[in-house]
Amino acid sequence: MPNENKIFKNLVKSFHDNKLGHAFLLETNNQEQTLKELLQFLKEINCEEEYHSDCHKCNLCNLISKQEITSLKIIRPEGQTIKKEQILELKNNFLSRPVFSKYNMYIILNAECLNSSSANVMLKFLEEPEENIIGFFITNNKENIIDTIKSRCQIYVNNYKIEEKSLNDLENISLEYVKELEVGGLETILYNKDKILPQISEREDLIKFLKEILNIYNKLFLIKIGEYKVDNFENLQFLLKIDIKYFINKLNLVKNLLIEAQYNVNSQLILDRLVLESR
Ligand SMILES: [Zn+2]
After folding, report:
1. Residue-wise over 117-144: b if at least 16 C-beta within 10 A, else e?
2. Distance from the CA of 59 to the center of ligand 1, in angstroms?
3. With bands split at pLDDT 50, 70 and 90, how would you rate the model's confidence at 201?
4. Which of 58, 55, 47, 57 is nearest to 101 (CA)?
5. For 24, phi and psi rounded to 5 degrees?
6. Domain-by-domain residue ranges, the chain?
7. How far is the CA of 58 from the centre of ligand 1 (A)?
8. Please, what CATH class does the domain formed by 164-277 belong to?
9. What percent of the chain has pLDDT over 90?
10. In CATH, what number does 6-157 get?
């Protein structure tokens, strides 16, 4: 499949016009999907054949797909941070020009995990751009990226919509959310900002999400009064010890917010109220 993603399509165009930048910051609600499409883009700009569709002819495209080429480095956080040593290693790797591919390429996932010392090493790449090095910083929230890096990148937002076909995902996201809401308390406001809001780009998404939350509390209520058998609620068993009135209040709260969500486009306000008024 050719890359249908608008951002990468435009970058391919810049590449053919010889105007491709050397550092990019991609904000996305789905880093793995972005990585997949990014690898496809990298094949397209490195391919030795004339790249029409997903190339199966050349070994280079194969190696990029499998992430098995030394001129491509993908960095993920080790624990909570991306360590200085990881960036130093990258830097050493890219001292020489690439042999098989056009570019030396690096991709940094969860780039917000660069701390000040690893970011300092990173700046070397960004301040003295070499023609044959191209880099991508991927993050869920570009506001968490160190300014010195952000200011040297071309920034793109690459969000994917929650679609009908991923209703299963929506159910899992919502189950996880209810647990967070019940256990995390006020910290759920951060969870809203980091995990949920990036996935809600339109009011319809918010409404779908709230309906799913309502559905979960409704099931919990029915389980509580013995009208429903437990299905995938293992993680929420602890809630069943709570008084029935709690669920009635919760159902009313979510219902009210759902009504407001039809009129109020500010998703953050609605989700934060869900947290604040849950208490
Ligand atoms: Zn190829």
Report:
1. ebbebbeebbeeeeebbbbbbbbbebee
2. 7
3. confident
4. 47
5. -135, 140
6. 6-157, 164-277
7. 4
8. mainly alpha
9. 54
10. 3.40.50.300
Residue 124 contacts by C-beta under 8 Å, 6 or more apart in sequence? 91
Task: List the one residue out of 214, 227, 218 whose CA is nearest residue 259.
Answer: 214
Residues with Cβ within 8 Å of residue 98, at least 6 apart in sequence:
71, 104, 132
Ligand 1 centroid to Cα of residue 133, in Å, is 19
Cα–ligand 1 centroid distance for 51 (angstroms): 6
| 60 CA → ligand 1 middle, Å | 6
Say whether pTM exceeds 0.90: no
Cβ atoms of 24 and 156 within 8 Å: the answer is: yes
Report residues near ion ligand 1: CB below 5 Å.
47, 49, 55, 58, 61
pLDDT value at 1 more than 50: no
CA 124 – ligand 1 centroid, Å: 30
Over the stretch 225-255, which tens digit does the pLDDT of each residue have?
Answer: 888 776 667 778 788 888 888 889 999 999 9
Give the strand pairing for 133-139 and 23-27: parallel
Residue 149 has pLDDT above 80, yes or no: yes
Q: 45 C-alpha vs ligand 1 centroid, how far in Å?
A: 9
